[in-house]
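Example 3.2
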Amino acid sequence: MSLRPAEKPVVAVFDFDGTLTRRDTLLPFLISVAGPTIFIRHMLQLVPVLIAYRLGLMRNDLAKQRVLRRFLCGMASASLQSKAQHFATSTVPQLLRPEAMQRLQWHQRQGHRCIVISASLQLYVEPWASAAGCREVLATELEVRVGQVTGNINGENCFGSEKVRRLEALLGDRGGYILYAYGDSRGDRELLASADHAYYRNFPANPE
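Structure, written as tokens:
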């Protein structure tokens, strides 16, 4: 027997970069990890990759992995986790959208299940989300071998249809809950299309 809408649990899913935050967070994170001088050096070496991506000649996940390898390959996992924790607590709060946080907090007050789902790195999204009261995060993970980061993505980049796939793997049958989804880019299209209430680059006024 299917549940009536009033009986279904409510899930609110938020993209991170550009939705909860005002901008992309990967480059600020890489600056914090590498330092300004090394960051510029690496980015100059990555110019062909960035141009190919901008021209649509290289897929998002492949370009992203080339960037991550350049910056993170060979780093000790424990050291990178420590840097990610610091970034989550010191830098991310400065990048948040007040209206997005108000909407997230409204869902939390209603007792809705709140999930952050992002192509950003789990390394820093998860500690930020935990501090913000979101215990569930679906994000891009890095491969670690023998205590060192390879720079490769572990599994799939959490982007586009992968967001829907991961959400379904976590929550099961889509018909079993009411879904609010918030996003800002083409990487959120499939997620927004699957939602009962989809918000693209806007946040409705809270009723309370």
